[in-house]
Design brief:
Chain lengths: ~110, ~110
């Protein structure tokens, strides 16, 4: 069964303290992996798409990487405005372009 | 540069009533997806539509739920005879094509009294 697991469930960091969020996936074949950010009361905001192992994408303080089994979202020197829930989703090759979602990592950056 | 627009943002219904949720995709996007989210849970796929066609409805309950995306106008998710368990946030997303990133609206929060 296709599955996406995100860890940790929650992460509290001090402003400026770098860390990584993990997204492990089990799919028959990966078509794409997507990272989103969700703020309370809002819809998910698209961040990155990764398609093949070894690929990396960067945006401001965020960098996403992909291996054959997992993806990492690295956050460098975070600021309080980076506080949000970060969601990971995968699209399997044998799916009808349906996204399978992880439960998210709630990131809190303390000033 | 409007993104995905959903309305209403909040909807209150009594048990047994009908709920209609509307979604206008990003201009130029012809693919629409509906998701449901419960507090502290991940997004659950419900249905994927392209203009006038349902592509995949495998995540949508067979009874009481229906979705459409007409040639003109917004996509509609319709829930008939609502029950307490239908209370959730319902999100709509759109994309330019299959496999392209999905862009989300801010959801409709449905509460059933």
């Amino acid at each position: 069964e296709d599955q996406v697991t995100q860890s940790p469930e929650a992460l509290r960091l001090q402003e400026g303290e770098s860390s990584s969020l993990n997204c492990s996936y089990t799919v028959s074949g990966l078509r794409g992996l997507f990272w989103y950010r969700q703020d309370p009361g809002k819809g998910p905001e698209f961040l990155f798409t990764l398609y093949s192992a070894g690929e990396e994408k960067e945006k401001e303080r965020l960098k996403a990487t992909l291996t054959k089994k997992e993806s990492f979202l690295h956050i460098t020197a975070p600021k309080p405005e980076d506080s949000a829930t970060y969601l990971c989703a995968v699209q399997a090759e044998d799916s009808n372009y349906q996204l399978i979602w992880g439960a998210g990592t709630k990131l809190i950056i303390k000033p | 540069n409007a993104g995905v627009m959903q309305n209403p943002r909040h909807l209150v219904r009594r048990r047994g009533q009908e709920a209609r949720l509307r979604c206008s995709p990003v201009k130029g996007h012809s693919h629409v997806y509906w998701y449901r989210q419960l507090p502290e849970e991940g997004l659950k796929f419900m249905v994927y539509l392209q203009k006038e066609n349902i592509i995949d409805e495998s995540g949508m309950p067979k009874e009481r739920f229906s979705a459409e995306f007409p040639k003109e106008g917004p996509s509609i998710l319709r829930i008939q005879q609502v029950v307490r368990g239908d209370s959730a946030a319902y999100f709509c997303a759109s994309s330019q094509g299959r496999g392209q990133p999905q862009h989300f609206g801010d959801g409709t929060r449905l509460s059933i009294l």
